[in-house]
Design a protein that fits this description.
The chain has 211 residues and is mostly helical. It has helices spanning 7-21, 28-34, 39-42, 49-67, 76-92, 97-101, 109-113, 116-124, 129-159, 166-173, 178-183, 190-209. The longest helix is centred in the C-terminal third of the chain and has 31 residues, at 129-159.
């Protein structure tokens, strides 16, 4: 086993590789090179790329939970909103964050157990466990989809600043679809759009949680 190589160092190096090269650049070999060791040294800690991604996703979820723990007296919707914002923040800190970390398996039982206070609070308030899980998964799916689109558009726009130009889009559509043309001018700041759409999602959750 290579001295000084820990899972934490591997994860930190993998996140650096991700930020520099994107999701496709993350390989065991690339991370080993970042740590200045041979790839076999990493196999003492991770069995392959998927396990590496799982470790990365677990670290991100650890940070999300730490920054969005339920506040005393917070309602279910408030807690879900804070979780959604924390998840988006963590995803946006890393290139291809939402695409890379979604679908990963949590490898730390402490991260899994950290969900217990959330579930205790919600079920104590009369929410069925399966409904609470559905609500959390719905909010998670919204954040993942929103941030994937947000990050992809941002990267494409950097490569081609005119790619999403509304005037070019208007000319492409033509004059006989005025409402469609208007939609291209409605895109607001991503933060504002996220909050607007999150509020719509949470309103739907509130309807499902109503007695």
């Amino acid at each position: 086993m290579a001295k000084g190589i820990t899972r934490q160092r591997i994860v930190e190096a993998a996140l650096d590789v991700l930020d520099e090269g994107g999701a496709d650049a993350v390989t065991v070999r690339a991370v080993a090179s970042r740590l200045d060791v041979k790839a076999p040294a990493l196999y003492w800690h991770v069995g392959g790329k998927q396990e590496l991604l799982d470790e990365m996703g677990t670290e991100i979820q650890r940070r999300v939970i730490a920054s969005s723990a339920p506040r005393p007296g917070a309602s279910t919707l408030e807690s879900l909103g804070e979780y959604a914002r924390a998840l988006r923040r963590e995803y946006l800190l890393h290139r291809d964050g939402a695409r890379t970390f979604s679908g990963t398996r949590l490898t730390d039982p402490d991260v899994l157990r950290a969900q217990e206070p959330w579930l205790e609070a919600w079920t104590a308030g009369g929410i069925p466990l399966d409904t609470a899980v559905d609500a959390a998964e719905l909010v998670t799916a919204f954040v993942v989809g929103f941030v994937i689109e947000e990050q992809e558009r941002s990267q494409y726009a950097q490569e081609d600043p005119e790619r999403y130009d509304p005037e070019r889009r208007d000319a492409f559509i033509g004059e006989d679809a005025p409402l469609v043309r208007r939609t291209g001018h409605l895109r607001s700041d991503p933060q504002e759009r996220f909050e607007t759409q999150l509020a719509m999602v949470l309103a739907g959750v509130a309807t499902s949680l109503a007695p």
